[in-house]
Design a protein that fits this description.
Chain B: Part of the signal recognition particle protein translocation system, which is composed of SRP and FtsY. Chain B: It is an enzyme of class 3 (hydrolase). Chain B: Its main location: cytoplasm. The complex is a heterodimer of chains A (about 325) and B (about 450). Chain A is α/β, with parallel strands linked by helices. Chain A folds into 2 domains: about 1-110 and about 315-325, Up-down Bundle (Four Helix Bundle (Hemerythrin (Met), subunit A)); about 120-310, Rossmann fold, CATH 3.40.50. Chain A has 13 helices and 8 strands. In chain A, helix 1 packs across helix 12 (about 310-325), helix 2 packs across helix 12 and helix 3 packs antiparallel against helix 4. Chain A is elongated and about 65 Å long. Chain A starts with a helix and ends with a helix. Chain B has about 450 residues and is α/β, with parallel strands linked by helices. Chain B contains 20 helices and 8 strands. Chain B has helices at about 5-15, 25-40, 45-60, 65, 70-85, 115-125, 145-155, 170-180, 200-215, 230-240, 260-265, 290-295, 300-310, 315-325, 330-345, 345-350, 370-380, 385-390, 395-405, 410-435; strands spanning about 100-110, 135-140, 160, 185-190, 215-225, 245-250, 270-275, 285. An 8-stranded mixed beta sheet of chain B has the order 3-2-4-1-5-6-7-8, with helices on both faces. In chain B, helix 17 packs across helix 19 (about 395-405). Classes of the chains: A alpha/beta (about 325), B alpha/beta (about 450). The interface between A and B is large, with 50 and 56 residues.
């Protein structure tokens, strides 16, 4: 069980604040998930059909999705046979290992943003209504600015009432400028202006907000395509990142969201928001597996610094902390 | 659509039992497994699914399904009936307080669509119920939330009460109600901030607002795309506040909306309204049967028919039918029909409501662009009256002129003329067929009652 040890070493002795953030944010998620997991392990002494059925339900409850769960359980069954695991205690490590496997596939995923060494980097945010695009942009701007970057925001949500003002508030909180036009103006025109301004002011990173849109609205998706096209035309190689904001409470529809937004804007990464609730956002496993879109950030609260880079192992660790560590109480006091 | 509906899922099992004289228990079990998967894929909470499948199984193993000649269809029927029943009746009425103003509190998670729904609800109260609502901006946490409500109020020409974001929401609610009394307004809609159901401090704040305003309705606003967590959210909000109804938002997306069933099952509170779009009048009554069809991926024929009924003028339809029968259908009539279809909403939405449309070849990935209808309109409008009456006279130079006049290409003009010709031919055939069959009652096409 080297994986198990590796994880433990990696996290129990680290003073990494990020790990702690993850832990705090995921406490609720983890509490409900792992206590059930422990229940499960305690209830079943031996690994049998009934155990797997319960495990299946546990994962479905985390919104992982039927197909992924079935596949995972099948693989687990094989692994159990192969390693001749009989005691449920011994299966914990295998489960977390498999979960990380499902997410990562062949090679490890790099969650960092493609920030250009030289010149302008453009980041475009897309997503359905109410997932937290504007809030995430505020947090990301704050973070990039703290990293010493010169940041500019583009108020591309010209549709929703109050959206421009909302971005402006975040802009002033983070201390970065916002390029805007009036409500109801053409978002592509706003982007054009913003790109020109970013060039003139020699900005490092331009972050573009867009209006939330349901992925089945053809016209709105075309509008988004146009926004992206304008950016492409004005800055060669841009947008360098297209980030899809995804609400962790969303169920199976998230997969359709990811598919449609990828088709139109070639999404390069996901920001999984609202992970500080009780929802687990398990659908990201299926999204990574089926569409190969990695999660780049997770939103763990409403404060400026509640945006954290995603780390698959830590994510799984957050869910399984109590299982991986034998003294779960110590973990939280650390 | 990403996921197979129940009917598609059951195809396999049905094929297997076809030809069998009798369906046995293990066949039913297999079908039940498919029912379970279909519901899980629709985001119905797994516990709710479990209970539901148990109930259906009992009915299925009993007389109904096993003795039936068409067990597959019978199962679907039983599932749909049970689902509809579980979803409850239609209940879109809103409480009226004996001592006005009637107070409605809007609560829910962040991003569920509370502010938008508040605006829509106020609009509905005024338009449909002839009431005078006051919008109260009590979301002091999200940046510019107050501004959002004010903008909506402006658009709707409805009063908004706000005190900025430095006053506690409890005071805002109190003074908002006072204001409504002073101004003799009969409804107060309190837009509260989105919050996590596990955030005790903020949940306490809601309890306080409830205590002082003694609301007549507390509406829980839930995103229709919510997954398994919907039960936790609904349960927590209901336990803390005792919600009186649920509004399901963003149902104009392509989610199955299994959350509706989960919420209903755990709270037993009625789903009163559904949000069907970003426009302020896109708030509709909840129809349990349609929701059941949707969760099962069976299309929404009823909504389609209703849309056609409300938007298509009956007299005009009859007149059109006569024209078709007598083959005097002109391009002008065609244009009029297009206009009526357009009124019904985006075409791709309409197509999605047809059961099985996602399985029909060519229709599954069809994306109809509303603009194309506009192009067709432009082309027809660029014709002279004579041309509209007798498209035969349109020769090459006329085509060129029409193309230039409408800003479309000659190819597009040609295509339209050809389509129109074919449509006429088809109509003729259908008329003949109908006359032969001696079936009165008129056409069912195109888009007629």
């Amino acid at each position: 069980m080297s994986f198990f040890k590796k994880l433990k070493e990696k996290f129990t002795h680290s003073q990494d604040t990020m790990t702690e953030k993850f832990r705090d944010g995921l406490t609720k998620t983890r509490d409900s998930f792992t206590s059930k997991m422990n229940d499960l392990v305690a209830r079943y002494r031996t690994v049998d059909e009934e155990f797997f059925e319960e495990l299946e339900e546990l994962l479905i409850q985390a919104d992982v999705g039927v197909d992924t769960v079935m596949e995972l359980v099948d693989e687990l069954k094989m692994e159990v046979k192969r390693q001749n695991i009989k005691d449920t205690k011994d299966i914990r490590g295998v489960i977390s290992e498999k979960l990380v496997d499902i997410y990562q596939g062949e090679h490890e995923v790099d969650p960092s943003l493609a920030i250009q060494q030289e010149g302008l980097t453009v980041i475009l945010f897309v997503g359905v209504n109410g997932v937290g695009k504007t809030t995430t942009i505020g947090k990301l701007a704050h973070q990039l600015k703290n990293d010493g970057k010169k940041v500019l925001l583009a108020a591309g949500d010209t549709f929703r009432a109050g959206a421009i003002e909302q971005l402006e508030v975040w802009g002033s909180r983070a201390g970065v400028d916002v390029i805007k036009q009036g409500e109801g103006s053409d978002p592509a025109a706003v982007m054009f202006d913003a790109v020109q301004a970013a060039k003139a002011r020699q900005v490092d990173v331009l972050i573009c907000d867009t209006a939330g849109r349901l992925q089945n609205k053809v016209n709105l998706m075309k509008e988004l395509e146009k926004v992206k096209r304008v950016i492409e035309r004005e800055v060669p190689g841009a947008p360098h990142e297209v980030l899809l904001a995804l609400d962790a409470t969303t169920g199976q529809n998230a997969l359709t969201q990811a598919r449609m937004f990828k088709e139109v804007t070639n999404v390069s990464g996901i920001v999984l928001t609202k992970l500080d609730g009780t929802a687990k956002g398990g659908i990201v496993l299926a999204i990574k597996r089926e569409l190969d879109i990695p999660v780049k950030f997770v939103g763990l609260g409403e404060k400026m610094d509640d945006l954290q880079p995603f780390d698959a192992e830590k994510y799984v660790y957050g869910l399984f902390a109590d299982l991986v560590d034998e003294e779960p109480v110590d973990m939280r006091e650390e | 659509m990403a996921f197979e509906g129940l009917a598609d899922r059951l195809q396999g099992s049905i094929q297997k039992i076809r030809g069998k004289g009798k369906v046995n228990e293990s066949d039913v079990k297999e079908m039940m497994r498919e029912v379970r998967l279909a519901l899980l894929e629709a985001d119905v909470n797994f516990k709710v699914v479990k209970n539901f499948v148990k109930r259906v199984s009992e009915r299925a193993v009993g007389q109904e399904v096993m003795k039936s000649l068409t067990p597959g269809q019978q199962i679907i029927k039983v599932v749909k009936e049970e689902l509809t029943e579980l979803m409850g009746g239609e209940q879109s009425q809103i409480a009226v307080s004996k001592r006005p103003p009637t107070v409605i509190m809007m609560v829910g998670l962040q991003g569920a669509g509370k502010t938008t729904t508040t605006g829509k609800l106020a609009n509905l109260l005024r338009k449909k119920h002839n009431r005078k609502p006051l919008l109260v901006a009590a979301d002091i946490y999200r940046p510019a939330a107050i501004k959002q409500l004010e903008t909506l109020g402006n658009q709707l020409d409805l009063p908004v009460f706000s005190m900025g974001d430095q006053v506690s929401p409890i005071d805002i609610a109190r003074q908002g109600i006072e204001k409504a009394k002073e101004d003799h307004l009969d409804y107060v809609l309190i837009d509260t901030a989105g919050r996590l159901h596990v955030d005790e401090t903020l949940m306490d704040e809601l309890k306080q607002i409830k205590e002082l305003s003694s609301p007549d309705e507390i509406f829980l606003v839930v995103d229709a795309m919510t997954g398994q967590d919907a039960v936790n959210v609904a349960q927590n909000f209901d336990e803390a506040l005792g919600v009186t109804g649920v509004v399901l938002t963003k149902l104009d997306g392509d989610t199955r909306g299994g959350a509706a069933l989960s919420i209903r099952a755990v709270t037993e509170k009625p789903i009163k309204f559904v949000g069907m779009g970003e426009k302020m009048d896109a708030l509709e009554a909840f129809h349990p049967e349609r929701m059941a069809s949707r969760i099962l991926g069976m299309g929404d024929m009823l909504s389609l028919i209703e849309k056609a009924q409300t938007n298509i003028d009956e007299e005009k339809a009859k007149e059109m039918e006569k024209k078709l029968r007598t083959a005097t259908f002109t391009l002008d009539d065609f244009l009029e029909q297009l206009g009526q279809v357009k009124q019904m909403g985006p075409l791709d939405e309409l197509i999605k409501m047809i059961p099985g449309a996602n399985k029909m070849k060519g229709l599954d990935n069809l994306q109809v662009d509303g603009k194309q209808l506009g192009h067709v309109e432009a082309i027809i409008q660029s014709m002279t009256n004579a041309e509209k009456e007798q498209p035969e006279i349109i020769n090459a130079s006329r085509r060129k002129r029409i193309a230039r006049g409408s800003g479309r290409t000659i190819q597009e003009v040609n295509r339209l003329l050809k389509q129109f010709e074919e449509m006429k031919k088809m109509m003729k055939q259908m008329t003949n067929m109908q006359q032969k069959g001696k079936k009165r009652g008129g056409f069912n096409f195109p888009f007629m009652k």
